[in-house]
Specification:
The complex is a heterodimer of chains A (381) and B (395).
Chain A: E1 5-10, E2 31-32, E3 36-37, H1 39-48, E4 54-57, H2 63-69, E5 84-87, E6 91-92, E7 95-96, H3 102-108, H4 110-116, E8 120-125, E9 128-130, H5 134-143, E10 148-154, E11 164-168, E12 174-179, E13 188-197, H6 198-209, H7 218-228, E14 233-237, E15 242-244, H8 248-259, E16 284-286, E17 291-293, E18 295-297, E19 302-303, E20 306-308, E21 311-312, E22 317-318, E23 323-325, E24 328-329, E25 334-335, E26 340-342, E27 344-346, E28 351-352, E29 357-359, E30 366-368, E31 373-374
Chain B: E1 5-10, E2 31-32, E3 36-37, H1 40-48, E4 53-57, H2 63-69, E5 84-88, H3 91-98, H4 102-119, E6 123-127, E7 131-132, H5 137-146, E8 151-159, E9 170-174, E10 182-187, E11 197-208, H6 209-222, H7 228-238, E12 242-246, E13 252-253, H8 257-267, H9 270-277, E14 293-295, E15 300-302, E16 304-306, E17 311-312, E18 315-317, E19 320-321, E20 326-327, E21 332-334, E22 337-338, E23 343-344, E24 349-351, E25 353-355, E26 360-361, E27 366-368, E28 375-377, E29 382-383, E30 388-390
Parallel strand pairs in B: 1-4, 1-6, 4-5, 8-12, 14-17, 15-18, 16-19, 17-20, 18-21, 19-22, 20-23, 21-24, 22-25, 23-26, 24-27, 25-28, 26-29, 27-30
Antiparallel strand pairs in B: 2-3, 6-11, 7-13, 8-11, 9-10, 9-11
Helix pairs in contact in B: 3-4, 4-6, 6-7
The chains are: A alpha/beta (381), B alpha/beta (395).
Chain lengths: 381, 395
């Protein structure tokens, strides 16, 4: 079997800055925007870009993530010749194959990649919210006759010291890579999206095994090695909406921005849909006492209270007299009567009983974890 | 688990009183409750009973129906082991020709016989799609077995007046001594139209495969269409053991525009909505990938069922919005059904209206029907800005 380009989505990260929200599930599986999980954006981008063979590398808390990706059917990735494949660490005669870094995860899956004998491998992270046509990036890669193309995002100069910065010449060729530079020379931050010529990358990863064995990460190890060896490495600039929802605040903020119908992501664009695996639930019901303004509501919701500038995911119930404001409520949450939720993220399956309150502030968003319970009568004995 | 029931859906259903909604679609693919089609209800009954194959017989090409059901995978009907949706189109056309051409006739009956034989199931279900319900086939089957019946037919007690005068449905009657022994059936249209409880046959009929084959032969000899109520009539003529299984959930016989409109409105009552959708047995449909629905800053939505991927800037009351509908600012929609992809402009007023799919309504439009006679617009229509249309007198 011959494939031009194979996608490898690195979805093994923990995302520890998301606290409670990534305690039981991996960051790519964290819910977003009412009916999505973060990884849906990378998978949908693959599907929409015509990349139909995608390996999804999972490691940290993979249960929900693996179930979500499954056979890849929601993204049209359940093909006869490939489709989506979940790649997990396994043990073998060489010992256990835990993934010690981004490049190491690719190294451990060489056998999988070789099944498809691809010319190019697209390496993605499953952690970001964006819409990107990888085919355009591939065309750029071919035009430049590159060995490696790195997706870069112009960031503000203040933020630049937090990223891996690519310094380029006038032809967009990368001449220097600065990991979190104190004094950045450019504002082109690496997005963690790479297109490699597969035979060459494979050679780097395999040769290194007999040498220092330090090719663990793309940013820290592989890209510097490529530059040292004068490989043709190019930067492909992406200028649309891109968000790393790495913290509670940024996850909340990204959701609040997402409510805006004129949001840059243009989620209703039927030419570039974001697909997801969603449960089959009845339509949303807004009762006689329900009031919903400036919000996004998903199938299966029942609203008898007031919802303002918020997102309700599947099967959320909001009882009479309750107010949900400036909040992101994940699926299957039950909100009783006279509850007040404001500036908060409510985890899947949480229950807020009558009179309960979950109230956060700017820069200090309140979080209720998955299946947590709060409020209601106090039982005094 | 091995397949227990071979399901035959007779979707050659009378649709003339549902026009223009059925102009380009069979009754089975009529949209219902924001995100479903009528076929989803019998199909979900199959899914919930772990039935893994079905045979469909429909009168026209069935394009819209096949587009919806595809491989049947959503309802678990695509297993490589004994699964499948076996479709037979243009049945009306073929039976008409059958008077001239014996071959079509033979094929029609053979298709049924072969399907049942190949399914390896011990029981056969005959049903249609115009009796909207959420019924448990396992419960009917268990009842059938416990009663040691030859044939078991589901019914619900309703007021005669809940059905239209010239309804095509049947009333069932039971033997005085054993109150679920089905002894007689009668065309509902011949039952006096008064406020009296009747047992409405739901046209969900189960029998063993030997009994099925016997009745099939009889149908073949009489050259009549294969249908639950027809087979029930055979069993009564034969003196076989027929029993009635009483269904107590939500039921609506959808035969014309008023009953279709009523069914949608009734679903806005929480009791009915819960009975149909929040039972243990879910209703399954083909999944779609739309965004959540957006409610604008001045949206006012009360007592409404809304699908995903809509955009609402105006006022929506006692209404159903299907997927991808858009209601612009200062527009008021009440007691109406707005189907998939229909966009309504600014400052409009709509009451008692059914807008089929992909209709464009301009600004400042006034459309007003009545509860008994809602205004119906057909798929793809354009209603120009400023238009005022009223039907009948206001109540």
């Amino acid at each position: 079997m011959k494939t031009e380009i194979l996608g490898m989505v690195l979805a093994g990260g923990q995302g520890s800055r998301l606290g409670k929200l990534t305690k039981q599930i991996a960051k790519p599986a964290v819910p977003f925007g009412g009916k999505y999980r973060i990884i849906d954006f990378a998978l949908s981008n693959c599907a929409n870009s015509g990349i139909t063979n995608v390996g999804v590398v999972t490691q940290y808390q993979p249960l929900i993530l693996n179930e979500h990706v499954g056979d890849g059917a929601p993204w049209g990735l359940n093909r006869h010749n490939g489709g989506a494949t979940i790649l997990q660490p396994y043990s073998s005669v060489d010992g256990e194959k835990w993934f010690k870094g981004t490049a190491h995860a690719i190294y451990q899956n060489i056998d999988y990649i070789d099944q498809y004998n691809p010319d190019y491998v697209l390496v993605l992270s499953g952690d970001h919210i964006y819409k990107m046509d990888y085919e355009k990036m591939l065309n750029f890669h071919k035009e430049k006759a590159a060995s490696l193309t790195v997706g870069v995002l112009p960031v503000s100069w203040d933020e630049a010291p937090r990223f891996g910065i690519m310094n380029t010449d006038l032809t967009n060729r990368i001449i220097e890579f600065d990991e979190k530079p104190a004094k950045p020379k450019s504002n082109l931050a690496s997005m963690g999206i790479y297109i490699f010529n597969w035979p060459r990358l494979k050679q780097y990863l395999q040769d290194n095994q007999s040498k220092t064995r330090n090719m663990l990460d793309f940013g820290g190890d592989v890209i510097p090695a490529y530059l040292d060896n004068s490989e043709q490495v190019f930067a492909y600039a992406f200028e649309d909406y891109w968000k790393d929802v790495g913290t509670i605040e940024s996850l909340w903020e990204a959701n609040m921005e997402f409510i805006n119908p004129d949001h840059d992501l243009n989620i209703r664009d039927t030419n570039w849909r974001i697909y997801s695996r969603t449960p089959d639930c009845p339509p949303q019901f807004i009762s006689k006492t329900g009031k919903v303004t400036n919000s996004m509501i998903t199938d299966g919701c029942y609203v008898s209270g007031e919802v303002e500038h918020s997102i309700l995911s599947h099967n959320v119930r909001v009882g009479k007299g309750s107010v949900v404001k400036d909040s992101f409520v994940m699926a299957d949450v039950v909100i009783g009567e006279n509850v007040h939720i404001e500036k908060a993220i409510i985890g899947e399956g949480a229950r807020i009983y009558d009179g309960g309150q979950v109230i956060g502030k700017d820069k200090d968003i309140a979080v209720l974890g998955y299946n947590e319970e709060i409020g209601g009568l106090t039982h005094e004995e | 688990m091995r397949n227990k029931i071979a399901a035959i859906l007779n979707l050659v259903e009378d649709s003339k009183d549902l026009r223009p909604l059925t102009q380009n679609r069979p009754v089975a693919s009529l949209p219902f409750a924001c995100r479903y089609r009528l076929i989803d209800f019998p199909f979900s009954a199959l899914y919930n009973a772990e039935v893994n194959s079905a045979a469909l017989f429909i009168s026209e090409s069935g394009h819209s129906l096949y587009d919806h059901i595809r491989s049947g995978a959503n309802w678990g009907l695509d297993s490589p082991v004994g699964g499948g949706v076996f479709t037979h189109s243009q049945i009306e056309l073929k039976t008409l020709r059958a008077e001239r051409d014996e071959e079509f006739n033979i094929t029609y009956f053979d298709n049924h016989r072969k399907y049942v034989q190949k399914s390896k199931a011990d029981y056969v279900l005959l049903c249609g799609s115009n009796m909207l319900s959420n019924i448990s086939l396992n419960a009917i089957l268990q009842y059938h077995q416990e009663k040691n019946a030859d044939i078991t037919a589901a019914f619900k007690k309703v007021s005669r007046k809940a059905l239209k005068k010239d309804t095509e449905t049947f009333a069932y009657y039971f033997d005085g001594n054993e109150d679920d022994y089905l002894s007689k059936m009668e065309k509902m249209s011949e039952v006096p139209y008064e406020d009296k409880t009747v047992s409405l046959g739901m046209n969900y009929v189960i029998m063993g495969k030997e009994v099925f084959n016997r009745y099939l032969k009889k149908a073949e000899e009489g050259n009549s269409r294969i249908d639950g109520n027809t087979f029930l009539r055979y069993s009564l003529e034969n003196g076989d053991k027929a029993y009635g299984y009483e269904y107590t959930g939500y039921l609506k016989s959808i035969e014309d525009i008023p009953s279709y409109f009523e069914a949608n409105m009734e679903i806005l009552e929480e009791k009915n909505f819960n009975a149909l959708f929040y039972r243990n047995d879910p209703i399954i449909t083909r999944p779609r990938h739309g965004a959540p629905t957006y409610y604008g800053p001045n949206a006012v939505v009360n007592n409404a069922l809304i699908a995903s991927d809509c955009e609402i800037y105006g006022k929506v009351e006692n209404s159903l919005l299907y997927r991808q509908t858009k209601i612009r600012e200062d527009t008021e929609v009440s007691c109406s059904i707005i189907m998939h992809g229909t966009k309504i402009g600014k400052n409009c007023y709509l009451k008692y209206v059914i807008l089929d799919k992909n209709i464009k309504v301009g600004d400042n439009v006034h459309l007003e029907g009545t509860r008994e006679k809602p205004l119906v617009f057909k798929k793809g229509d354009t209603i120009e800005s400023g238009k005022v249309i009223r039907e009948g007198s206001k109540i």
